[in-house]
Structures are given as C-alpha cells and as structure tokens.
Amino acid sequence: MTRPTAAIIDIQALRENFALAQRLAPNANSMPMVKANAYGHGIVRVAQALEDMAPAYGVACIEEALELREANIKQPLLLLEGPHSADEVEIADQQSLWLMLENHTQLKAVLNAKLQNPVNVWIKLDTGMHRLGFQPNEAQGVFQQLSDSPNVAASMVLATHFSCADNLDNNFTHQQLASFDAALKNLNPSNLKTSLANSAAILDWPEVKDDWQRPGYMLYGNTPFAQSQKNADPLKPVMHFQSAVISTRTIAAGESVGYTANWTANRPSIIATVAVGYGDGYPRHAENGTPVLIGGIKCPLVGRVSMDMISVDITDLPKPIGIGEPVTLWGLGLGVNEVARHCRTIGYELLTRMPARVPRIYT
Ligand SMILES: *Cc1c(COP(=O)(O)O)cnc(C)c1O
Fold this sequence. Notes:
About 25% of the residues lie in helices and about 20% in strands. By secondary structure, the protein is α/β, with parallel strands linked by helices.
C-alpha cells in the first residue's frame, strides 16, 4: 500500500554521466554541482554516490554544505555565492568549506575574520553575465589583498561563469573567454588555478580549458542544448518520474475534463486519471498535449493539472489500459527537456522543483 508516485534515481547513470564529464577534460578536476538538493535528486545520496570520484562539490549556500557535513561527506565544499554574512567565514574555517568571493563585502569579511586555518578562496570575475563577480580590472587588486592575507590559503582559483554557452552559435562565450584570459594574464598565474566550464562548456566548448570544471545539469543526464550534440546525446537520464493510472472512463464528444473545463473531447474519448499533480512537481503550466508515457507510448495530457492528479487521453493506445498501469512523466523515453518545452520552462526548473512529497527511490 503506497501511492505509486516516485522519482526513481539511477545511481549508475549518474556515475556514468560524471565519468563522461571527467573524460572530456582528463587534465581537469571535475566538481559535481549538487546545489538545490542535487537538482532535485537528493543532495546526500548524490554526493555519496560520487564520493569515490569527486574531489569536491559545489553548493549554493552554507545550509546545503552543512547538510553534507552532517551526512559525513568529507570533501571540500565550495560555496558558489560565497559567504552571505561574516559569520559564515568562520563556519567555513571550522567545516573546511571553500569560499567563492564575488564582492568587496565578502572580501573584507575574509580579510577581517579570526580563523584557525587559512581558507581556500576562489575569486569570481564578472566577464559579462553581470550577476556576480568582481570586474576584470579589479582582479589584480583583489588577488593582491588576498595573497597578502594570512587568512587565505596560497592556492587560489580564478573563476567565471558563462551566460550563453548552451547556445552554440552565440559569440558571447568567446567574448567572456577573452575577458577572462586578459585578466588572468595580468596576475601572476604561477599559483593560480582556473575554473570556467559549466555543462554546456564541458560538452561543446573544447577551447575552454581550466583546472576545475563545474558540471551540473549534465550529471543528471540531460542535455543543456536545444539540438542534438555528439557528447550530450549519450547522457543517461538519472531521474525517472513515475506514477500510475488510478481511474479510467469514457466520455462523449463535447464533454470536458478537469478544472475550468479547458479541454473538450471532439470524439468519444478514453481518459486515464494518473496520481500525480502540481503538488508532486508536475508543472501546472503543462499545456494540453504535453506528452505522458503510458505503455511506452506518448499520450497527450488533457485538461488542467490538479494538485494530486492529471488526466491523459489514451483513446489511441493499441491495448486497453487498466488501473495500476505504470506511467512515466519524464525519464527514459521521455526527456524532461521535452516536457519542459510544453510548459514554457527548462528541464532544470522541473527537476529542481521536485518536492519532498515525492519519495526518491535509489537503484
Ligand atoms: C549551477 C552552476 C554550474 C552548473 O551549471 P550547469 O549548467 O548545470 O552545468 C556551474 N557553475 C556555477 C557557478 C553554477 O552556479
């Protein structure tokens, strides 16, 4: 007796996707991005699954880092947005966290902190995304102050983040790269490492060379690109979002389905009700016709997504479907990117919004 709705998490696929990221840049370290509950897959279990392969992990905030420490994860953890307040620098010291520094408030917090040991610092440069980071012309001064501080470990990393790397025709990535290289040349690069690549850059920008790449979305088995790409195509989806049919009925032409009656049958239709809804992270904005996989065949969503249920038109299935029939919302055979396109969003959001109500089952 359990509700049939669950996210099946394929650990082997996760490990293979990470191995691909490593293989594409054998001389770089690959740091799995496990922020946002490992893109919805479960931060602790994902970190444990990669423990023997990953030299460090990337998280968005200290709460995520402490969750990993409580689970006994020993690797360095990089706070991608840096410390949100001065006291986090001391926690970073106690918990062996690495700090991305991206503004002068954070820089001062590190320089003024009372620490047991020097902290590991990454300097974030704003090369054009204009969200976080020091301006490239500040790099020299920031680097010098950090180098002179007893609070900072000698080996630092200069980092930036691409805004358009998933668009293979966009020249902006080249501009960001040029801006980064110019700033790097101005510093004394001897004890300075670099970090630039996200999934898109790892998969399709071989000219981006760095010491630390930061794969995220690709680890979870989905492509960041809108089109086919030779490195991305073999990625294996890690999350299989599943449920089951809990009711079926036949309706006449002219009858409607669901809240607001926004879909009306134009022929006699068989409707399957599936035990998944927006309370499970299935997007309410999914439009009529969004594919749902039943018996290996894509069937159209009809009517509004409810909190706990959706309705699917199974009239065209070759075989009759009964209560208990398994349903895949996304995963093998139906990529989360394809579902996202019907909801005017991206797969990243659908994965990340998967709520706690959906049990994660690890295989
Ligand atoms: C999330 C994140 C990444 C990973 O991006 P993907 O597109 O998921 O690979 C890399 N770097 C930073 C700074 C990030 O915040």
